[in-house]
Amino acid sequence: SDIGSQKDRVVTEEEWLQKWEMGNIGFHKEQGHPLLRKYLDVLLNGRSGLRIFFPLCGKAVEMKWLADMGHSIIGVEVSEQALKEFFADHNLPYCEEPIPEIPGGKLLQSTSGDISLYCCSIYDLSSSIVGKFDGIWDRGALVAVNPCDRQRYVSLMISLMEKNSSYLLVTVSYDPNKHKGPPFYIPESEINTLFG
């Protein structure tokens, strides 16, 4: 596939943490993503009280929006700063506890219990730790994952999905020879191959 010079690009965890520390988070959308509003019916599919997963969640405002609709939100993010900013931005009280299965990992959970955010590498998660999900909102995760890790990421996502899960995926289309990423360009043919 023609992904230009991107296929060997690797962005380290430290680089992501630095983006948050420096406030270099142009990927964060203060108003939420218009495509989630547009395709909300596809995600929910007439169901209520869903468990919805936000991979590489940052401080996505949609987490609060969906929690306010009665859904349980689970997110994962390597930046503790991003998670703490999420709770602060929404004036949400939360508690923090270690994740026994993940050395150094933390769970930040709203005191209401409807938002649970894991601070760790996404690859430390498994269904035995977080359970399975009725819906996944992937708005910047797959396109942020290093190209060499895509198959590993998609295999994890598939392992976290319930039988009737809905998976909303947002990608970006551009000439990968003109931008080194992230966000990375992923041709539709590769998405079809990855997810089967």
UniProtKB/TrEMBL annotation:
EC class (word): transferase
Subcellular location: Cytoplasm
Positions that bind S-adenosyl-L-methionine: 16-27, 56, 77, 121-122, 139
InterPro entries reported for this sequence: SAM-dependent_MTases_sf, Thiopurine_S-MeTrfase, TPMT
Catalytic activity: S-adenosyl-L-methionine + a thiopurine = S-adenosyl-L-homocysteine + a thiopurine S-methylether
Pfam families to which the protein is assigned, alphabetical: TPMT (PF05724)
Domain of life: Eukaryota
GO molecular function, one term: thiopurine S-methyltransferase activity
GO cellular-component term (any): cytoplasm
Single Gene Ontology BP annotation: methylation
EC number: 2.1.1.67
Alphabetically ordered keywords of this record: Cytoplasm, Methyltransferase, S-adenosyl-L-methionine, Transferase
Protein family per UniProt: Belongs to the class I-like SAM-binding methyltransferase superfamily. TPMT family.
Name of the protein: thiopurine S-methyltransferase
Native source organism of the sequence: Bucorvus abyssinicus (Northern ground-hornbill)
